[in-house]
Request: fold
Amino acid sequence: MAIGVFDSGVGGLTVHHRLVERFPTADFVYLADQANAPYGGRPGEEIVDLTRAGCERLFDLGCNLVVLACNTAAAVALRRLQQTWLPGYRRELGRPVNVLGIIVPTIEAATGLPWEHEAERRGDKVEKLDVLGVFCTPATCSSRVYEIEIDKRRQDVAVFSEPCPELARLIESGAGAVELAQCVEAHAKALATRIGRAPDRAILGCTHYEIVADMFRAALPPGTPLIHQPDSTAAALAGYLERHPEIEPGAGGSRRFLTTGKPGAQHSLVETFWGAPLTFEAA
Ligand code: DGL
Reply:
């Protein structure tokens, strides 16, 4: 059995990299739906269908757990799939399978509280002392998942999401550093203008953006803390595997990289981030 990691494209590799470090003996299959990337500008129903197809493919390949290393898929599709598709599919397969997202661990990291914790709602207005910026895709932004889930737990945190419609596509296509940095700077500036000042902390709420995290660091005031989704997801997976011994992550240390798009080597931006050549097989 193996752990599947799914994203629309190369962004999920930022999470995958950390998972591989944390679970060196586990077997992993990474699936990039590059034929359909980016997801961030697509209607919700399409994101749900594509995410379900990606999970099914990974389960067919012998995975028993899929980590959705994609904020867009997790924000738009995960709850729907868990409620309407997964229980029946599990029965059909006759083995325990599950899908984990990336939003829950990120919210836990951003609030410093476990997911189960919901703040007691007080009638009086709570002063917002902490301004959190979320850079994300338009679909994640429209879902308002970060605003809603953080507000349930921490009413002292003001969340401002900044949709970056072009950024995942630019990263996916291997755009040059100048174009990428200009795009990141424009969004950091737009967010600060909307808030009236720079955020105190930020979430790179699209896994692709972690590939250009240095550009975000340069565009935000020096030292602005960035909540690190790969770390929080790896910690959440460790807890999950401990609580679910029936989910067997394999022990062969194998790694497969599949794409629904063009197989072969990935562009240099990805290889630089990954630190080694990376060849994808056809899914
Ligand atoms: N990497 C994805 C995310 O975390 C998806 C980006 C996209 O396909 O638009 O949201």
